[in-house]
Amino acid sequence: MELHTLIAKDLLKIKAVFFRPNEPFTWASGIKSPVYTDNRLTLTDVEVRTDVENGLAQLIRENYPDVEVLMGTSTAGIAHAAITGHIMGLPMGYVRGSSKDHGRNNRIEGKLLPGQKVVVVEDLISTGGSCIDVVEALREAGADVLGVVSIFTYGMEKGLKRLAAANVKNVSLTNFDVIAEVAAADGYIAKEDVARLLKFRNNPDDESWMEAK
Question: Three-state DSSP class for 79?
Fold first, then answer.
C-alpha cells in the first residue's frame, strides 16, 4: 500500500480527519466546512503514531537528505518533530507563535546555529500562513530552511500560491484529494460526495457545494 493511502486510512480510522458533508462544521473564520481535522489524535493511537512518524522520517530522507535539524511548529508539530528526530538521530527544537515575554525572550527553542540545514515539521497545512511565518522566523535566525514536511495538506489554491511565493517547499504524508477518495472507497462517505468535497477544497468561500446532494 502506498504511503499516502496508508496514512489516509489511518487518519480516517481514528477520525483525525472526519468528513460530514451533510452537516458542515463552522471554522473560526465562519467558513462552512465538510471536514474536521485534528491530527493530535495521531499521538494517542500507537499504531497510527508509528505509521505517521516513520512516514515523516521516510519523506524527510527522500526529499531533504541534507537535513541537520528538525524544527516543529508550535504546538502541534512539536511532538512529531521530537519523535521523528529520535527515529532519525537528529536534533530538534521548535518555533513559538511569538517570542516569550520573559527570560531570554526566545521564539526559537533549542540550539540552532547559523547556516544549519533545517526541515520544519508541521501537522496540517491549509492556507499556509502559520507555516510560512515559522519558516521566515528561522530564516531570519540564519537557518537554511530546506522545506517543510507535514502530515496532511488541504491543497487549497490559496495555500499553494502562498507557499510558492514565499519559496517554501512542502511534502505531505497525504492530502485532501487522497483522503476523500479513500473515504468514499471505504464507506465513510457516499461516492457522489467526492465531487462536493473537491469543490469545497477548490474554493472554501463558495458554499454552493452544500447544495449538491
Answer: helix
pTM: 0.93
Helices (H), 64-211: 76-88, 129-140, 157-165, 176-185, 193-202
User: Which residues in the chain belong to E strands, given as ranges?
Assistant: 17-19, 25-26, 32-33, 35-37, 69-73, 92-95, 108-109, 117-125, 144-153, 170-175
Instruction: Report the distance separating Cα 152 and Cα 123, nearest Å.
Output: 6
What is the rounded CA–CA span in Å between residue 181 and residue 131?
26
How far from 79 is each of 43, 52, 62, 70, 184, CA to CA, in Å?
Answer: 8, 12, 21, 11, 30
Asked, as a colleague might, if the bond just before 75 is cis with ω within 30 of 0, I would say: yes
Q: For residue 102, what pLDDT band results from cuts at 50, 70 and 90?
A: very low
Lowest mean pLDDT among 36-50, 57-71, 98-112, 121-135: 98-112
* Predicted pLDDT of residue 146: 98
Closest by alpha carbon to 125, among 80, 191, 167, 76?
A: 76
CA gap 90, 113 in Å, rounded: 14
